[in-house]
Amino acid sequence: MFHLFFALAAVIVAGRLLGIVFRWIGQPPVIAEVIAGILLGPSLLGAISPAAQQYLLPDSIKPGLEIIAQLGVILYMFVVGLELDLRVMQQRGTAILTTAIASIVVPFALGCALALPMYSAHSASTVPLFNFALFFGAALSITAFPVLARILKDRSMSRSPLGVMALTCAAMNDAAAWCLLAIVVGVAQAEVGWAFAVAGMTLLFIALMFFAVRPIITWLLARLGDEPPPQGVLALIFLALLVSCLATELIGIHAIFGAFLLGAVFPHKSRIAIDLCHKLEDLVTVLLLPAFFAFTGMQTKIGLINGWENWLWCGAIIAVATAGKFGGTFAAARLTGLSWRDSAGLGTLMNTRGLMELIVLNIGLERKIISPTVFAMMVVMAIVTTMATTPILQLLGLKWEENGHDKAAYRNGV
Amino acid sequence: MFHLFFALAAVIVAGRLLGIVFRWIGQPPVIAEVIAGILLGPSLLGAISPAAQQYLLPDSIKPGLEIIAQLGVILYMFVVGLELDLRVMQQRGTAILTTAIASIVVPFALGCALALPMYSAHSASTVPLFNFALFFGAALSITAFPVLARILKDRSMSRSPLGVMALTCAAMNDAAAWCLLAIVVGVAQAEVGWAFAVAGMTLLFIALMFFAVRPIITWLLARLGDEPPPQGVLALIFLALLVSCLATELIGIHAIFGAFLLGAVFPHKSRIAIDLCHKLEDLVTVLLLPAFFAFTGMQTKIGLINGWENWLWCGAIIAVATAGKFGGTFAAARLTGLSWRDSAGLGTLMNTRGLMELIVLNIGLERKIISPTVFAMMVVMAIVTTMATTPILQLLGLKWEENGHDKAAYRNGV
Hints:
2 copies of one chain form a homodimer. Chain A is globular and about 60 Å long. Chain A has helices at residues 2-24, 29-40, 45-48, 50-56, 62-83, 87-91, 94-122, 129-140, 145-154, 161-189, 192-224, 231-251, 255-265, 271-299, 307-335, 340-350, 354-366, 372-395, 404-412.
């Protein structure tokens, strides 16, 4: 326990300190925390002083760190689901729908294509090409809705037309990409004959959540009214969360899909959803997710990307990821009539991957779909694409609205 | 992870179901959760069907369960500290002070005395008599402030003179007993020569928290004003919590003392203390503490108390615990002028041990101060003394005040 707490404290301190620097150069704090975890891991501290790294993050704390990280990620994905406004999908026009579909399909296709030449050199030994390619494609089609929302807020763009469009696209992207990933992870894990069963059960589970669980929750919450929820109701919700996680694990996909889906089927604006977000968000972000950053940092060995050939592959991943996400979004937005500048801005925003990408990558590594080397390359890609967002928005001249309220929110780091 | 979630879900369901029954017979829900954990462990389910118990709570999940339980207990003790109103100690008269002191000193002395004949038969092999007796005495002087507060609330007695007196006594008892326990655990662990150093460092740490950390926190919170705390401040608080836990672990006492003390030195009525309680309480009670109940249930083997001799010892522990806590409080309250009925009521309330006692016992078992058999006996004692409180209050005719608001709070289980 001592070392676990020590590691958590170290990652929180490093992440917050780096966060101050990053805020100053206009980068979202979550990237500072990701990088802090990597710097304290084998990639930097371990390379400089293996003894210091072994003291700070000894291998013995890995299981404990993983459990807190898992708990944190599950609660985090539940909150992301809760904050997702599914009604926008019904309200928005075909322009946004087209853009959102393009922002998944294009990177997925390009990712699958890139996986073909990478497979022989960089797949984990036991995984078939088909599964490797599917996972690779799905991993590239992730957009980090929370980081994107945060960047928009930091730039006071949340309520601008472009901001609303980006949030809507990202919400659709999130819902679709995680369902896609659930199927891909399930299929990638299963025997060939079993793959269809897994895909079928996943779709059935998603349908069940939307068409059976959602009406039940809506009905129950309507009965509860606007009172603060009693503890018995909270116990029921956490129980539903655990059961949803267990169901997804039984199907063979990952517990976080269950957590995300349960959050997504909650009525977005209900008193209890707002209350839960309010309660969980800070605790999860401040105390539990640092365990995830530390764990990911321990897993990430940038040193594995050695030699110019590996760095070329890493560059190719960044290029393909950006071409797919930015390019797909940009082209679709232009086709549906957006200006050059707004299309480029939308593409840049959708190219944000942040924490969500790391969650996906950890699943791939844990399930032995990708090798530690590819994991490291993809982590670099996630950091680069996320960090590129703010400077490019700046270059495009997509400025802040001068708005006293949002400026205050920016300063307070809300 | 699958089994961990499954076990958590099972304990939550069992605890809540039993809680409904217990609420019906007027018992606090926390005792239902404690008993649910024990029933799912080796004591009942394991005796009936070892296979079912091994599926529900396999040994492989113990480390994971322990980490979530530890996290839950640390956050819980932090909240208990936050809710502790230390100012009452300065305001109240000598009557309450006398009663509070008696409610610690008498059970401590009687506990130490009982430890002498128990030592040869029931101590863990390596622990010296002195340490065993100290721990035994300290363990008997615990009062469960949260359960006591809950019982008072359930009976709408929180604002009656007796209720206020009981809460004040219990708050003083809590603060003093945990400091005493910290020293005892530290001393019990240390080599003979080192024991004084541990006791000294513990006192120094307590003094530091009250005379250095408390003013700093008060000053910082005053600067913050009544605004909702930004995330940076929350990060600082959780960091302080981790550092305080690390400091106590370094001294050789337990991390929960650090968590409790940090909570206790927070200004009780500050916006941030109320906000933190509100945020942490539900999540900790509903999601994390069930892991503690499951873990404690796995550790508790009632079957170890076999034969009439062991049950006699168990009865002796219950008798001595009650004689010390109830008797000491009752005598002191009578001497300072309370009525027979109120003195008996106060003694009964102070005899509530609940969850707090289990936290202490787990420390004793983990540090190998007490044997698994004594652990089981003490768990039985904690359950019996806690469950006796409500019926005895009923017998004494200490009725509810007919108060619409509190009745509503009772029904809602707030």
